[in-house]
Amino acid sequence: MPDADALTGPQLLEGWDCALCGRRLIADQLLGTVAWTCGSRTREVELWVCRPFCGEGLEGA
């Protein structure tokens, strides 16, 4: 799973960009959730990725 602190707003909070490659999502699929801390608050955030998996998603397969 990507490090939540290394992701951009569109990757982490808005779900507009792939959490792996950073491209704008046209078709997406849920990668999973990560714990993200902002200040004193921690919350679970869903990460979305390219569908089918982008090249970044295939590296660990």
Structure described in brief:
The protein is mainly β. It is 13% helix and 34% strand. The chain is elongated, with a radius of gyration of 11 Å.
Number of helices: 2
- Secondary structure: number of strands: 2
Poorly predicted sequence stretches spanning 5 or more consecutive residues? none
Classify the secondary structure makeup into a structural class. mainly beta
How much of the sequence lies in strands comes to 25-35%
Task: Please tell me the overall pLDDT.
Answer: 89
Main attributes?
single chain; 61 residues; mainly beta; 34% strand
Structure report:
- The chain has 2 helices and 2 strands; from the N terminus they run αββα.
- It has 61 residues and is mainly beta.
Topology at a glance:
Blueprint: H1 9-12, E1 28-38, E2 41-50, H2 55-58
Antiparallel strand pairs: 1-2
